[in-house]
Amino acid sequence: xxxxxxxxxxxxxxxxxxxxxxxxxxxxxxxxxxxxxxxxxxxxxxxxxxxxxxxxxxxxxxxxxxxxxxxxxxxxxxxxxxxxxxxxxxxxxxxxxxxxxxxxxxxxxxxxxxxxxxxxxxxxxxxxxxxxxxxxxxxxxxxxxxxxxxxxxxxxxxxxxxxxxxxxxxxxxxxxxxxxxxxxxxxxxxxxxxxxxxxxxxxxxxxxxxxxxxxxxxxxxxxxxxxxxxxxxxxxxxxxxxxxxxxxxxxxxxxxxxxxxxxxxxxxxxxxxxxxxxxxxxxxxxxxxxxxxxxxxxxxxxxxxxxxxxxxxxxxxxxxxxxxxxxxxxxxxxxxxxxxxxxxxxxxxxxxxxxxxxxxxxxxxxxxxxxxxxxxxxxxxxxxxxxxxxxx
Length: 392
Hints:
Layout: E1 43-47, E2 53-57, E3 69-73, E4 78-86, H1 88-96, E5 108-111, H2 114-124, H3 127-140, E6 146-152, E7 158-164, H4 172-182, E8 185-190, H5 193-200, H6 224-229, H7 236-239, H8 254-261, E9 271-272, E10 277-284, E11 289-293, E12 303-306, H9 307-318, H10 349-357, H11 365-381
Helix pairs in contact: 3-4
C-alpha cells in the first residue's frame, strides 16, 4: 500500500472525490465536497489487499480521510488497511453490500504507526513464498484445487488462502499441515475464476484494465445467447476472457440490442418480388438496416434496405402482391435551377468586387491629370475673387 498524501498530511488532492488511489475497486466519492460530509457518520470503508473490503466504525472519532492507513479490529489481533470512503456514501455502499445494521461491526483502532507498517511489510514479503509452498503441499496431498493467492493479516498472525476448485474439497488435512509448516492461523476461502482474474489483474482486448479488477463487485452469469443477440461470431477464443469464461462485457449492451431487434422483422421471413425471392443474410441492428440475398447459403445479388421498407414488403406479400424490387422506386421530380443571389458558392466573388473598388486606380495617369486640369479651369472661371471690374 502506498500513501498518497500532501505535505500537510491531509491525504487529499485537488478534487476530494477522485484523488489518486493505488487500489482496485476505487469508488468515486461524489459527496466529498458537501459540508460536514465526513462527520455525517462514524462508518468508514477500508480496503485491504486486492479486492477485499470491509466496513468499520470510527468509535474513537479519529480525523480520517481517504488514503489514510489505519489499524482495524480483526479476529484475532489487528489488520492494516487503507481508508477508501468516508461520509454518507459509506451507508449507501453498505446497503448495496446487504449489510444489516444490527450485525456487530468491528472498530478502527488507530492510524497505522511506523511499527505497524514495519510488521505489515514484513508479512507481505512472505506471501509469494507461502503460496508456492502451499501449492506443493496441496499437490502432495492429491487435492484437486489451485491456491491462487495468499494474504497475510497486518499483524502476521493469520493468513487467508484463496483457492479455486471445480467441486467440493476436503482440506482439513491441508489446514493442519499448513498450520504446522507456517505456524500461523489458517483461513481457506474459495473463489471463482472471475474473482481470481480480478485479484491478479491485467489488460483486456479493449486496451483498458479488466472490469473485474477495477469496478465490478458482483459477477452475473454470461451465456452465448448474449452473443447471438448482438450478432457476434461464436468464436470461443474471442468470446472468452482471461479467466477462460465468457467476457462480462457481453452483457453490457444486450438490452440495447434487444430493443433495436423489435424494430426489425424475423430472420425466417422471406421477401418476394416479381423477379425472385430474397432471404435474410445479415443485419446492422443498431442502424436498423437488413441485407438480403437471393441465395440462402452465400451472398448473391445482395440488397440492403431499412426495417421500415422490409415491413412494407412483408405487408405487400401478405396481400398476395409482389413489388418490382426491394428498393422503393421514388419518381424523380423536375429540379429548378436556383440562382445564387449572394454568390456564396462562387470562388471568384471577391474578384468582381475588387475590380469595382480599384476602377479609379486602374485609370491611366494622363486621364487623371486632364480631369484635374479641367476641374481647375472650371473653378478658376467661377472664382468671384478674381473677377476684374471693367471701367464704366
